[in-house]
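Record type: ASSEMBLY
Status: queued
Input:
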Amino acid sequence: MTTRTDCHKLDETLMDFLYQELAADEMAEVRAHVDGCPRCTAEIERFQATRRTLGALEQLEPPAAVSAKLLHQAAAAHRRPLWRGRSRLFRYTAVAVPMLAAAAALVLVFHVKDKAMAPIQARPTSTVTAAPAAAPSVSSGPPAEAPMAGEAAPSVSASANKEDKSEGGFELADKPVSGKDKPAPRRKVAVGGGVEKKSGIIGRIEPDVKFKAPSTVPPAELGHAQIEQERKLASGSAGGKAAQPAPPPPAPRSVAADEEQGLKLQVRGAQAPQSAQPTPAPSKPKGGVAEYLEGRKNEPPSTTYRTPEINEMSKSMAQKHEIAPISPDDVFRDVLTSARENNCPRVVERVNLLENLRYASRNPQNMSEAYRHRADCQRNPSDKDNDLRRAQQLRYQIEQRASEQQRARQKPSKAADAPAAAEPAPAQAAPPAKK
Amino acid sequence: MLHSETDEALMARYQKGDVRAFEVLLARHRKPVYNFIYRFVGDRAQAEDLLQETFLRVIKGAESYQREAKFTTWLYTIARNQCVDLSRRMKLRRASSLDQATGHGDDHNGATLLDVVPDGGAAVERRAMDSELQTRLKAAIEQLSEEQREVFLMREFLNMQFKEIAEVTGVPENTVKSRMRYALEKLRDLLEDYRELARAAP
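Status: finished
Output:
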């Protein structure tokens, strides 16, 4: 039964036999031969013994850190999953906030309708907002929040007004959101207190060109012009903290000089190229985002942002995530809503949470850690993420400046405004009052 | 639920943005891939780097991944290429540098073999003997030529079929089988005296 031919055959198919890669019938055939052939049996056994010996080789567990990094990278490369199953708000927030942040960095100005602002209106004063903070802190939050709101608070520029809508600045809320605007009193509080921590950060945001660049100012110069104006306001007048009576140029919480400078660079670069699109600006929204949104309610959503960078980013992100481009209106709406729900400072964290996945900390104090991880993550960035990264970088710079500014302001503070004074911390936000 | 899906289905999910799918894929394959790489390059630190690089490529190449392709073939090809590239870069030679974390060495350094031998996982009482065996096995594998070693590792540790190995390495299937056979024969010779030990240490 055992023949030389059979042995030869085994030799040819030894590996296949050993690893059982032969077809069933062939396996059976070879097996039959091996069973009856001591020589082949021994041969097979030797190989099997070697395999068994090597089978003792231990299998190491890869370090968890590597897996963590990879998951981080995977999430960074694909942000979309994070939105999955989340509310639209959440989804938009993820995309919109970074975008808005960048946009804010570029100084999007919101039109302030306040009469006090009248003078300013000619040129929208923009307060530079630190991006994430962009979330206007609408005081809508629970009463308790009022003080908090201030922190994040978008600086409501117009401030003095008590009326929600009448107020300039960020009243943003779109109807749904804003519907519940706070009672005047509260708002005041918000304004006054608002200035606190991140106050430096927020300013008015102008969603898009349409929103309004007064024709008087050449678009290209807008950013610069605005800044200049702010600077003037800041230095010249009262710390605008919010509540400013009309007459003095209401420096809407102007940005501190240092901040201005820092931002200026960015603003200029970014905005210069852009020309204001004379889009049908709803006739100057008179005040606040809420009204602006209200006014646009029946218009087709615009997806045009004022700066080319943001426009590009919006498009590329929409494409990347397979969603319709997000309009400035939506951005504001969602960010506002989010801000109301979370308090502004936490919007920042939320974004970071998304971007850094598990690395982000909910504690603002630990943001630096989040940054570190982010930097880590960015070391191997894919080109596609460039746009988003740039926005993030911009935002970080702004945030850092804002915090520096904030720190710097803490000392000098003490805004002149009465309401502001009432608040313990208001000073921070307040522009260096005085001069 | 995700855990019961095929690699290809998971990859498709990840392409659509589901990071959890990637997480499952990673959990499923990181260990075999890591061990393959580690045994190939012989150095833990480098293996960790290459493991990371391998999966990073999966992340970056996710969009271009075709569902018709077998995921593991793709993954292993990436891992194997990483190893080969490193090997070329380092001019790594078989049996080289067991003593340097960076894998730079060129010759045997028996004195440090034990230092590098991984000792995790083994029962304490068995550790001494096991450590010696592990050292020996590791050294034996590293004495295989690179061609033999990769085939051996893919077949034994990644459980790839010869046909798949041929696809990944780009050589005919028969060549793969020959290399496998030579690898086993060489290992058999190298480990002859350790048979008993192996039996003793299940």
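Annotation: Residues 19-41 of chain B form the longest helix (23 residues).
Annotation: The CA atoms of residues 136 and 193 of chain B lie 10 Å apart.
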